[in-house]
Amino acid sequence: MKIGxxxxxxxxxxxxxxxxxxxxxxxxxxxxxxxxxxxxxAEKYNCEACTIEQLLxxxxxxxxxxxxxxxxxxxxxxxxxxxxxxxxxxxPLGVDTESGKHxxxxxxxxxxxxxxxxDTFLGAGIQxxxxxxxxxxxxxxxxxxxxxxxxGPEGWHPNPAxxxxxxxxxxxxxxxxxxxxxxxxxxxxxxxAAITTKGFAERIATSEALNGLRIPVGIxxxxxxxxxxxxxxxxxxxxxxxxxxxxLPCIEIYGETGSMQVPDPNGFxxxxxxxxxxxxxxxxxxxxxxxxxxxxxxxxxxxxxSGRTHRANGALAYHVLEVMCAFDKSSESGEHVIIESTTExxxxxxxxxxEWEID
Length: 359
What we know:
Blueprint: E1 2-6, H1 12-19, E2 26-31, H2 35-45, E3 48-49, H3 52-57, E4 63-66, H4 73-82, E5 86-89, H5 97-110, E6 114-116, H6 124-134, E7 141-149, H7 169-186, E8 189-197, E9 202-204, E10 214-216, E11 222-229, E12 234-240, E13 251-255, E14 258-262, E15 273-276, E16 282-283, H8 295-306, H9 314-333, E17 337-338
Parallel strand pairs: 1-2, 1-4, 2-3, 4-5, 5-6, 7-12
Antiparallel strand pairs: 7-13, 8-11, 8-17, 9-10, 11-12, 13-14, 14-15, 15-16
């Protein structure tokens, strides 16, 4: 399948590199508001650099990978759908549920597909975690924790301002990895109760290029809450850009007969450890390939050809978006937020595949 890429920023290199690993898809063209960025990637990865209008008018391109900034994800995605092409977006699906729902509904009306990062849950770490749970190694899941804590990207990122504007913050930036991993392992979320806050009114950039730049903070940066899943499991979550240091785990799940340590969902690998009742932690064999970014789009292209449901699909991405947006809604209302959407757990990756193979 011939595809195009819209957005040639830093993250695009991971997608271009991933496309080199497969014969399922071929990048035909790329574009960016900064034409020099598109030209640089086109020269490096042997594809065409063009305008977005030219890319969307190209009848050979069936799927477009949308790597624009979060606030543009839906607008660009709608342009792709209007051009009659499938769209695979970087995370999050959108910056609010209304626009995200509009994107999903538009695709359905046109008979087209929406895919969305993260695809890290297709890697060895989260797939092994799901296999351990599904095989009964910790029994019925009762509770768990999910923590992503730090002090934000202004100390190292070359353009950190958008992290503190609409569409940024720890929840919409990092939450997709955590919520998607949990939904893949446990299934859909039923309701959310949360309290959120903003620890600092402004941030001071300390990167070499922007040292001293004052960045106003327009979103919540410390979000704490509880997710009740449809299967009854209760997960305590903290997403924070307001913590200088901590010693909290990424994800742990506690079941009737044991506990499980789940690896950082922002990566594709392990380790995964299970502690049976009365025992000690036992590291699990990673029976799946690690892969890397672009595997979600590869899976989507393969699924379009075969007619099956792709794993990093629009229903999953919209459910994750609704869960993330529920944190601020719950904090503002002082009430639980019932999650209206639901989703199927994506099919597990078959055991025995080599890296970059998908089925």
